[in-house]
Amino acid sequence: MSAFERFDLDERAATPREVARRWREFHRQVRRVSSSRLARLVGPLLGDATRRRRLFDALRPPAREPRVLDPASVRVFPVNYVAASAASVSGDDVRDAVEFIALSGDDPDELFEKFRVALTTSKEWLLVTRDDEGARRATAGALYARRGDADVIFADEVGDLATIPILKAPVVGPHTQLSYNVVGRPALLRRDAVARVGGLRPATGRAAEHDLYLRLLESRATFAHVAMVLPGRTPEERHHPDLGADTVRVVSDALARRGVTARVRVGERPSLVTWSPQLTPWPTVDVLIPTRDRADLLRQCVESVEASSYPHFTITILDNDSVEAPTRAFFARTPHRVVPCPGPFNYAAIINRGVAHSNADYVVTLNNDTVVRTPDWLEQLVGVASLPDVSVVGATLLDRHDVHEHDGIVIAPYPQHLRRGINYLVDDDWVLARRDVAAVTGAVQVISRARYLDLGGMDEQLAVVMNDVDLCLRSQSDGAHVVMVPDVVITHFAGSSRGRLDPLSDRNLFVRRWDVFASLRDPYFAESLRLLGPTVQYRPPVPD
Question: Cβ contacts of residue 257 below 8 Å, gap of 6+?
Fold first, then answer.
């Protein structure tokens, strides 16, 4: 089953006129949310893909460095979010269908005992709650009304601050769920589905519900998300100091059930863990570095890779018609293989040629304007890529000023880089987690060579841009996942090699292929969010 649907294989792709209309509407929305008043006035006059616009962009002064916000100073996120009262929630009367597991204290034993008793009732659904009777009925009714055929129906959650909610993706990413309890509360649970996996396990302590959701995922239970912010866990439950050790235990158990040997440790907060598959022996890896001249960039990139702790890797330099003497001298001295890739710049073709010359188990695409900052980066990335349900793996990129440039790619509605502190302004569990994402940048991608070849490589029609995102989307056609590993950090001197080369024809082909701005949806980014330029905006759900 594919997470994404192609529209260019059966004559359903949008016409050029329709694509142009979609771009105009998207740029209008970006200007309205993220631009100055002057830009909103001048933008439509210049157009968004015109010669005069390109001339204007070329002549205007370089953009100022983006403002980085301290997450601790953010009081409202996302933009224009307003907390709704729980009293405004409406739904079905569920007194005959739902068994409420009403907690009164903070002792996990109370949850285990009340849950055990609830499983013996005849009611179809279970709901763990701390709210008063009126609020719990309203919450259960709202979830019950949207249950469909799902086994677990979960909603967004009131956060530590009422103005910063916990917004959840429509799909529970299996690797995200390993990192933290994505589902959380409120969640309406089908009693039979819970009983089939054995209910709660007392040995799991404060991570009992997390453990239950992991086992439900393994049993192929179905999950449905409701884009409503409702009361859920208390801050004390989400941040309890004992939660970390309990979460390490349940995630270690989950990986062991899957036959994965892994190191699991507490992450940046008790609710979050980092899991790292450990391989014996480690597979071979070929790091592919495309370049054209710029020996200064290439040298520092290669030296940073040479410092890697990984036991079995090679470096292959893909030379796209370098002519400068320092670069030619570097090629003559380097012990690493240099593969000629002549012709006009076509990133996809260059990478395809590099993979064709490789015989390693895994290949890594790495821009020549990068510097690896995490010595065990290959162990981390290849370990995740080795999981049978993972296709492509990416990492965090920081710019030359240590500002976040890439924390995964989200499609909301167009594929753009998520950037901590720039457009994503809170350091929550989701952005800090090893997690499933729609795509990661080709500046650093890890994929098994066999899978790459099975996919037919990168699409050389997408010569400059979107070839990396296109590969990620195509790689998920068999139910595999793209995973972001945020604790691997690489510096990226963006644009140092390619400059401003950014053909609209590549972007238009991508829009038509994947029906961007229309049916394309990111399953791993909250559907109530839109990323418009530097702004993540809240879009309230449409009432049923």
Answer: 218
